[in-house]
Amino acid sequence: NRTHHCSTMPTPSRSRFLPLPVLLLILAGAAAIAGEQDEQQPITHPGCPDKCGNMSIPFPFGLMPGCFREGFQVTCDHSFDPPRAFLAGSDPDTTTNLITLTERDESAVSDDPDLVYSYSNTSSWGVELMDVSIDRSEARAYGPVTSRCSTSIAQSKLKEQAMTLEEPFAASKTLNVVVGVGWKVGVTDGSSSSSYTTTFACRSELAASHLEHARNGSCTGRGCCEAALSSEPGYGIVPGVSAENNTLWRTNPCSYAMVIEKSRYTFSTPDLYVDKVLPKKFPRGAPVVLDFAIVGDAACPVKGQRPPPDNACVSNNSHCVNATVGQSSYALSYVCKCSEHYQGNPYIANGCRDIDECKFPDIYFCSSKGICMNRLDGYDCPCKPGMKGDGKSGHCAETFPLVAKAIVG
Ligand SMILES: *[C@@H]1O[C@H](CO)[C@@H](O)[C@H](O)[C@H]1NC(C)=O
Ligand SMILES: *[C@@H]1O[C@H](CO)[C@@H](O)[C@H](O)[C@H]1NC(C)=O
Ligand SMILES: *[C@@H]1O[C@H](CO)[C@@H](O)[C@H](O)[C@H]1NC(C)=O
Ligand SMILES: *[C@@H]1O[C@H](CO)[C@@H](O)[C@H](O)[C@H]1NC(C)=O
Ligand SMILES: *[C@@H]1O[C@H](CO)[C@@H](O)[C@H](O)[C@H]1NC(C)=O
Ligand SMILES: *[C@@H]1O[C@H](CO)[C@@H](O)[C@H](O)[C@H]1NC(C)=O
Fold first, then answer.
1. How many angstroms is it from 110 CA to the middle of ligand 4?
2. 160 and 60 in one domain?
3. 273 alpha carbon, closest ligand
4. Which pLDDT band, with edges at 50, 70 and 90, does 115 fall under?
5. Are residues 239 and 387 in the same domain?
6. What total of structural domains would you count in the chain?
């Protein structure tokens, strides 16, 4: 390609000055080469598409048969512009990796569960991906936002979204929180240990006369509450909102529950008043961090032991790390990492490439008195000529002390 760029370039011999279009061509060519160098490192198998729209799809994720590891199939929906990526279930015949929306009218007063719902309407679609990070063994998806909007003191319309995840995915317990918004709301994350009738993950409660106690940015139980995901989130998340008599239904009709990446939602007091405001703020869903791992009774081999035949860490300069995705349910699982001083995709052959540390002086220090030199497994930073020491530790000194120099001079 490089020779192609050069051979098609008109020779500027007729003029001392390059005409502007030619100059632009050269600049464009240079940019193309720089771009190619950035993109040289493959993220998936040869012949496999590596993008859905502008989103990268690195192996083990993949779009076509033969291009993904089992469980990591992604469907690219081109009916959207730009196209959107959805997690496909590992078994297309089962309903896995789905967001389900259930809509129904509920009453807060009936004790008879059969009388609570006047109707129920359910629809499902795939879990949409926002991005995938092989380095961190994480994917981000649009997660469920449940809302309950009162139509009278004891009647409300519930729009409950649930996310069902299957191996090898689970919502990260350390990076997500469950959030509730409403003047009076109990919120559950859908795990077995929390339910409407027993424990709420968190509660927001304001006396009707104290609505002004809600503070922007404060999620401590006054208009907004936040809690860690419970220790047993099961296979999915079902953010739930309690049905309670809403004496403020005329001014504060809606309350919400969602599981969301920490710090992605900032409470704002108008959210207590505006109708259906959170579904408007997160129209495709709230960002949720999903952990993923290689599962299937597989753990990292013990040192000295042969790796399993379907070892996923196929790149040279990569290694395996035991993982705890979904805790007990996916007991034996692992992720692959590039070795120190390498980066890229450990799940494909030759996917981990040497890092040119000299390109990242903020991370890999080399004194301004040193010369940065990349090498495999690290970098060197010898001092410039006439100096001794080590530029990596910042100790480069003149070979002759100043005094000695002065004498020599
Ligand atoms: C993809 O495109 C959307 C909309 O054009 C943009 O907001 C987003 O940042 C892009 N993502 C990447 C990874 O470039
Ligand atoms: C259920 O949803 C369908 C399609 O959106 C709609 O036509 C129907 O009226 C709904 N049922 C009820 C009882 O609201
Ligand atoms: C919170 O911020 C919004 C604007 O984002 C503003 O309208 C509202 O009055 C603020 N609430 C309080 C209690 O300061
Ligand atoms: C809720 O409101 C209904 C209708 O106004 C009433 O009959 C019921 O007693 C109320 N329940 C509670 C717990 O306040
Ligand atoms: C990974 O887990 C397996 C099974 O629990 C254990 O035998 C092995 O030593 C662990 N490997 C590492 C590198 O921690
Ligand atoms: C990894 O292995 C391939 C083929 O075996 C080799 O060409 C490549 O140089 C190796 N890469 C590194 C970073 O060692």
1. 9
2. no
3. 3
4. low
5. no
6. 4
